[in-house]
Amino acid sequence: MDVDENGPQLALIRAARTLDEDSSLSLPDKIHKLWLLLTAAKHTRLHGVEESILRWLLKQMSASTDDAEHVRRYPLTWKILAHVFPKIPAQALGRSLAYLRFVSILNKTLGDITKPEPQPTAPETGQGTTTAKKRKRGTDWPSTLAELRASPQCLRTASEVFEALAVLLEQGTAQSGELTPEKRVGAEHVKSLFSSSSDETRDVTARLLLICDSSISLTDGELVSGAQSWIDTLTTIWDLRLRSKEESLEFAKHIYERASLILDKFEVDYTAPSSNPGYGNLREIWVPQLRRFLSMYFIRPARQRFSADKNIDIPKLALGIAQKDVVASTTVMWRIAATTPRDTSDPKSKIEHDAWIENIFQAVVEGLRPLARREKIDALSRLLDIALQTRSIPDTETLRALYRKQALDGAETDWRLLSKILACDADVFLVAEDPEAIFDNISKVSDGDAKTKDQVVSDVILPLQDALHNARDLAGFVSKWFRNLCAAGSVEQSIWFDPRIRAHLATILQTSLSTAQILRLLEGLDPIPSKNGELLVVLDGICGGVTDENTIADIHSKITSLMDRDWGDISAVVVGLRWRVIGYLASWGSSSECNQLWKRVKSDLKPILKKGSLAASETFEAFSCCYKLCLASHIGGKYEEDLTKLVCTMLKRILSSVHAEADLRLFKPYIDLVFNHLPRLSEQPKQEVNSLTDQIVKLLWHIGYNLPSLRNEQRLDYIRPLIHNYDVLDEEPLVDALMTSLLNALDNSENQSGWTQPHSLSLLSTLLEFPVECWTKGRRKRIMGSWKKHKSAISSYAAKDSEYAFAALRLLVKIMEQPTFYEQMDFTDLIDICSSITTSDATLLCLAERFVDTTIRQVLTNMNEATQSYLLGALHYTKSLKPGKHSADCTQILLLKGLVAALSAQRPTDGSLERIGADTDVFKKSLATLVERALSDFSLEANGSAKAPLTDEKLRFVSLVIDAAQATGNDAALQMTIQLSGDTLTRLERAGDIILTRDNAIGWKLRSFLMKQSAHRYTNESFSAILDVSSDSVEEELIHGFVDAYVQGKSQSIRDQLFDELIDRDRLIGGSVGPLLAARRLLRLYQDRPAGERGGLDLAKVHAYFAAHLRLTESLPHFKLMSETMLFLLDKHADEMTQYNIEATLTSVIEVCSAHGPRIQGSRAAGEIFAALFKLVALIIRRHRLRLSGHFHILLATLRALLTVLLADPNPSISNRQAARARHPPWLAARLQPRHAERFARLLTLVCEPSAASVARSRARAGSELDSATDVAKRAAGQHMYLVLEAYVKLQLEVEVSREMRRALEVGVFSVLDITGEGCRKVLNESLDASGRAVFRALFAEYRKFGKWKGV
Fold first, then answer.
1. Residue 800 CB: number of other CB atoms within 10 A?
2. Of the chain's two ends, which shows fewer C-beta atoms within 10 Å, N or C?
3. Alpha carbons 459 and 418: distance in angstroms, whole number
4. Strand partners for 150
5. DSSP state of 325
6. What's the per-residue H, E or C state across 611-680?
């Protein structure tokens, strides 16, 4: 048994012949040695040795002794079987396994491993020491029978058994392309192993399910190796059983209970994400497989039997047997039955499906009888949840029985179950024998249980309101609501007082009731006695829902009469609704009606507003009512002055309370009312209105600045409604009052600048909230003058508080973005701004750049004496710089960069610069000198980074310097001349490598700058070497800038040579994307050159190179870039493409869709690759259709390949796994979606419905002059496109195609049928088998019904 390393095949043969003769080794040792020999000689061509090993193992396993059990339990035994199964021809394998009763042995093994024993303790005897030594010589495979009987080792054996079965079942699948008679017969031999004995196959499946169930609890959710395919394996085994009439009965007795237990464990938390990735992955795979297993082999046969004889005994039997977990068995059965779709092609199927759903629901409800009431209620709620999700609603009588016997059966009503019943079918309560019962039960809800009240209102009362609305009986609900309010002892404590009921009534009232119905409803409420304000509750809901002007005019008088009564003895909570209803009447009525209303209520309203507690809801409602009365009298009403004074009085009370109370949440309703609505009253310049405006301004001021407990963002949340109120923005006096107070705060501080007070940040944030339209020229000049006056103090304060600095600079930028020339405006202002900014904050640096650029451009746009002095100041500042003596700083770079950029963009043409002695070159030279000094200093610092590391501040500074070097843009005539020494360039190159590890963008900006400055220092080889080390995250624009810098000024021949070197190295398919981006950029630069300056680059050859390498790409970015480059060449250089290029493109698409396609992985890879292929094929059809004449077969092959990928399932069952591996491309990790099908349908319509431009000059010379080019193209395509239909029909027989996918493809398929003649349809019909013809018949019927145009 020793391994002969020089002849592993010979050693295996000798070992196989002496298996029974060598008694010196135990059976586990023999099996282990045998495994070593098999793995060493795994490339054997003959199968005799493997067959001998198979027979020997099965003989050792067949007995009932401990040794046989030892071999059966040994995991390596099944690993060897999985190894030898594929090496033996299926016919010989099937005969051997049948002769040696493999299924019986399998059944015994499963019986052993499903009965684990406790884990044995480690022995401390000499025998234990011997065992330890034997373990050391081998591997980690357990050797003793006691160890193999423990639960973990049983699970390990089970995993190997599942793997061996999966391999065996693959041998029993006759794959397409391999259907030789021998293989077909062999596959049937393997299948017959499980079909010959139905009882054994049943027991095997049941025990495999038991292992699946045990694995979930034994591993604590950890994923067992290969467990993803376990359900698929046992499903395939059950499918091979010999069919009989008792199959459903056997399933119910032996399979259903365990399958439902497993499925319920996952479905309890199926929607919740799992913290264990392995468990979550297993759940995602097993749940659909188990549902499909139960549906196919239990629910569907049971439904078929029900359709035949209305019998559901089998499901009842399954529920009767599955008593281990009644809730799990009933829930799973109901979910599977409810989600199993009906046959939509059969008109009678809906009636049968409804009857089936009704009977199966009654069966599962009956199955819950053994449970206690609480458990039964919870289970029924789950069942009704499933019914709602699947829209499989039981009959009304069934639900009514549940309501009577379950929801009301007990001391308390189960509101959760009642809400589910109500959601399923409200007719349970609407047409009940006692429809008032549910209202009485709701009224009994205790006020102490707030949670129950909230649940009843949201889940019962509001849905009941909707149900009566849908039943056109909303008036009935209002009447019952009112009666129950009247019957309550305390209105405000009743559940019917909940404001959500009134709010919901308001949303549906106008659409549900006509004016006459509302009037009848109000008349019906009048005679009902109500003493505690019940009528106010109902009227509040009704008034809130009336929006139609005609309805308002008709019911106004009736509501007024209902309100004309004494409300003295009502609680303060309820009486507040009186003022809300009066507010509605005030907003509805005319001026005279409002005057009468004010006379009636002013005696009651004034005391509340003057003395009522602000915490009381009555006071707030009274204030809101007063506002509406005032608005009704505005403008010029009889009592407007009195009402405005009352409003101002209330505002003063609110203001004093806000002064005294730091917590604004108590006054939030009042503040919202003031800021949202009261500005409408400030339109007239009267004394009272001015007083109102003053109060609003004071309230804004106090909230914004005098409450230190509020954070800045909280203050803004309170005052934003006022600042952004359209009524405020339309009234300039009010805007002026608000902004003047804020601007005064900046100017008129007692001792020091208002810019630097503790509340200054809030002040600036408030000013930033005002829209641009509010910033008039005067206000802009005032605030800029104020800033100039205090700028030194502002700069000092900003240096201590970055948030304040950000707000102040934002405000200055916002002001200067509009033309603003304030007093004593000078260039020193920009110097002060930039001096206070450091590069430590990127946001502040960006704002400073914007401020400088905006200011200088405005100066250049409006040239006059003042602006000339401004530029003269800039000139003096520039000449005062001494870059050679001092290091360049951020301020100098910012200012000169802004000056040079602005002058390059809009140089004055009136000679104003020359008159003051300022020349653009002066600024350019100074900036160039600053850039040179800054880069020189940076290069020294960067190369000494061990002592002075590169901070983020230094990186931002060098980025600013590089941007300044390119401030003049790409115009060569305006560019600056920057001279750097060779040592400086070398140091900067080394610094660039360091910067790339910190900031990719800045590193590539530096490289592009250095390349532009000293392109002569680089060769094509060094240029390519830099590109090779670029990361995949680099932005395309950075690579493009680097390429542009290198090729700038070079001839086209040198560019072509560089391009050839890039593609000749075969570095475009993997590694860095830099070379590929550079090659694409060179092609675009080639296109931009005039035709006379283009070199001899052969674009057809270039395209051929990309087409040949498309399938070899190693990553998704490489694939997308290469396909986009091919698309660019085919589109922009169509005239240079040859026939070979067109065919090479289509061929490359076919290769990408084959099993030899690119091995690209990723969640988004499949969709993006398919989209790229679609674009290539679509462009060929649109732009190069003429070249498809005579070559249509290549296009057909391409369409078939795309269609195969579109419909393919990359995760098939075991029976189709081997075929899937041979047909699907490696990048197809998940099924494509209907949106991809829509793209493929677009390809079909492009072929079948060509545009006139795509087929121009395609008319055959012998054709009729009366035929258009499009008609000729359609007839030509009609001779071939039926082959795509044939592929589509056959693929539907191989894989499951969803309804959404078929619907997305309909447009294209119908387009093909439009151009397919009767003769081609006959050929298509003859090429299909019976199943294919059935699919095509249904497809053609759909086409004739929906897709075929019949004309007029």
1. 9
2. C
3. 9
4. 117
5. S
6. HCCCCCHHHHHHHHHHHHHHHHHCCCCCCHHHHHHHHHHHHHHHHHHHHHCCCHHHHHHHHHHHHHHHHH
| Number of C-beta neighbours around residue 1036 at 10 A | 12
pLDDT digits (tens, 9 = 90+) for 363-383: 999 988 888 888 888 899 899
Distance CA 112, CA 148 (A): 10
Neighbours of 1012 (CB within 10 A): 19
Per DSSP (E only), the strands in 348-482 are none
At 587, which helix (H) or strand (E)? Answer: helix 572-588
d(CA 233, CA 1215) in angstroms, rounded, equals 9
Residues 296-338 pLDDT 10s: 899 988 888 888 888 888 899 999 998 888 999 999 999 999 9
Evaluate whether 881 touches 932 at the Cβ level (below 8 Å): no
Q: For residue 124, give the 3-state DSSP assignment.
A: coil
- Give how far the C-alpha of residue 176 lies from the chain's centroid of Cα atoms, to the nearest Å: 39
Structure tokens at 501: 């009921």
**Residue that has been written with the tokens 């995991």 in this structure:** 75
| 349-387 burial code (b ≥16 CB/10 A, e <16) | eeebbeebbbbbbbbbbebbeebeeeebbbbbbbbbebb
Tell me the angle at which helices 668-677 and 687-705 cross, rounded to the nearest 10 degrees: 130
Query: Is residue 407 within 8 Å of 421, Cβ to Cβ?
Result: yes
Place of tokens 């001839």: 1051
Q: Does residue 1245 contact residue 1306 with C-beta atoms inside 8 Å?
A: no
What is the rounded CA–CA span in Å between residue 474 and residue 545? 12
Local structure of residue 610 (DSSP, 8 states): H
Question: What pTM did the predictor assign?
Answer: 0.75
> Are the beta carbons of 67 and 60 closer than 8 angstroms?
yes
Q: At residue 150, what are phi and psi to the nearest 5 degrees?
A: -75, 155
Burial 407-439 (b: 16+ CB within 10 A, else e): bbeeeebbbbbbbbbbbbbbebbbeeeeeeebb
- DSSP class of 1316: -
CB-CB neighbours of 575 under 10 Å = 21
Angle between helix axes 732-747 and 760-769 (nearest 10 degrees) is 150
Give residue-wise pLDDT tens across range 234-279. 998 998 887 777 888 888 888 999 999 988 888 775 555 555 666 7
Contact partners, residue 838, CB within 8 Å, separation at least 6: 844, 845, 890, 953
d(CA 946, CA 125): 63
Q: Which residues contact 613 (CB under 8 A, 6 or more apart)?
A: 619
Task: Give the CA dihedral 1239, 1244, 1248, 1251, nearest 10 degrees.
Answer: 30
> Which of the 8 DSSP states describes residue 177?
T
Report how far residue 597's alpha carbon sits from residue 633's, in angstroms, rounded to the nearest whole number.
11
* Distance, CA of 910 to CA of 915 (rounded, Å): 10
